[in-house]
Write a structure and sequence with these properties.
homopentamer; 156 residues
């Protein structure tokens, strides 16, 4: 049975992992979820690598950087760490970050975090179990958490 | 037979992979195309590494970052990930990114994406099958998707 | 018995390691502390890697970058180095940096450094011995050294 | 016999490799030049790694980034890739980049590119065959392509 | 006997290595100095890695980036390369960079370079032979080349 690692943080202000796990389970069966929570986003890369060593086939890394400039730097560092862990292990890490500054208030932030966590979870599911679903939607301008941009149609 | 991996995203707004594959096939035979689609550009590096593990001799990584500042950061991270995967495997990854902000409208964006995908595909073909074609054009100021800058001729 | 590496610098202006070690010891027993001090934050990554080679299960890396622009660059480099060491060894490195510019004066700086060192030490303890304590607090908006941001509650 | 890899790009607007090879050959014998041309500067790192695998003892990586902001980002990424390839293989990569914006016109650009390619080639030769020539000039403020800055003499 | 690698550049405008070696020798015996000079700071990482392969226990990497914006980018890249080499080998690299812009004139630049080279050399010595000297000075706000910032004392 496939294993999906779901890692989140105590720093985040929304329990994104619950939404992600629910979305995964709504999509199908035949996989086991490994869960871990770390303090902040910079702790995610090593947590993913450790999950891969425990047999995970894919990791979903959920985080919510703050709105300050320094938080963006931390997110950048965390992203590079996730890429490093992923390429090193040759296993996908689906990064799902929501920046506090992306939403104009608490309600919008909560909804954005929920939707993005769910949509990235569905992507994770597709990567593992239905790669053709992704292939069919290549170049379709899909967005996670916001309205899809859609494809640019050729105008004549 | 050589294998060329072609990886693109559902985030992109133009189906660049189709243009790239067509350009590859118009150029010659004697290779097999491996195809995969991932959600976004940060998922490209591990997809390339996995294709190399499946026998690809070269990967073409196609992506279309958005126009916002954060999209540029993501593209930078993705590029570093692609470089890491490529150097680690000692196999070429031809990166083909089109930034939404590079074009002034949908039509121009579509045409730019098509042309750049085709021209990078031809480069990929040359890297694998005709390295001397590239050697002959060293220092010629070639550009993908735009008019070539051309060489700087010595003026006297 | 588990081993916790605690590495700090002579560059820092507060003896954060003492606070961290005290916090660790106040939390429980059953672990041994390995201590090292290096000149600056860029010396932390290799010191952590060496501690892992000496058997550490987790490292706490404490530093205090200056307030100048260049200090931020150094901190960024050090962070990437810590991520690299951590992912390479597949062992957690808990980074605890306090920037001089975060506090408005010496007293506040001292208090911030103490509190953050203590709170990161407790996180380190939880990562090693009580992962469920972290899991229970997923998405709770915890902050180290400052007041917690708290969770974003869904408003109706 | 030692092997020197010389890699350049079709993106560059001056045939820097020819100048580099001529400079190498003017300096001595006892080495073989391996040549490759890739599309752009981000393709240089893997090309160097492959040359090392083919027996190169040192690589000279020649590139000419454009004048736009994005070109600087690409050059930064390429530089990190070259450092990665070099450290990984424990073999020197001499990076020789000329930015279009460094020169005020085509003639100056051509001359700068030629001079810098030649001077980096001589450095490459020294690294391999005459390390003492470099040691003798430690701290002398040498520059490639421009007038040397010279040493800062102690003033009394 | 321990070996200390000392690597500097021909780009630097002060012969920092001589000051560093003298400072090392003034501090004690029981070690051998390995010397190398490379063209610029980006050549330092691989030179350090090669010295580690030749048996160095620690490397001192001395460089003097110019005052332009691009020089800062090069220094950043070189620093990341040094961190990579150091963590990969699990051996310390003491980076000693002096930026031309740090000093207001040639005399000050020379003095700063000398003092910083000497003080980093003493740090290198302590890392190898007297780790407790560093431990005793943890959190003391030490600076290399400038007056120490000193510790932040708790005010009541």
């Amino acid at each position: 049975m496939k294993k999906i690692g779901v890692v989140d943080t105590t720093f985040a202000r929304v329990d994104m992992a619950s939404y992600a796990v629910r979305a995964l389970q709504s999509r199908g069966t035949g996989f086991k979820v490994l869960r871990a929570t770390v303090p902040g986003i910079k702790d995610l890369p090593v947590a993913c690598r450790r999950m891969f060593q425990d047999g995970a086939d894919l990791c979903l890394a959920l985080g919510m950087p703050g709105a300050a400039e320094y938080d963006k730097t931390c997110a950048h560092e965390a992203s590079l760490g996730l890429l490093f862990a992923s390429v090193l292990e040759a296993k996908p890490v689906v990064e799902c970050f929501v920046f506090e500054g992306e939403a104009s208030g608490p309600r919008e932030l909560h909804e954005l975090a929920q939707r993005r966590a769910e949509e990235h979870a569905l992507n994770a599911y597709s990567l593992l179990f239905r790669p053709r679903d992704l292939a069919r939607r290549a170049g379709e301008g899909l967005r996670q958490g916001f309205v899809d941009a859609g494809p640019v149609r050729r105008t004549r």
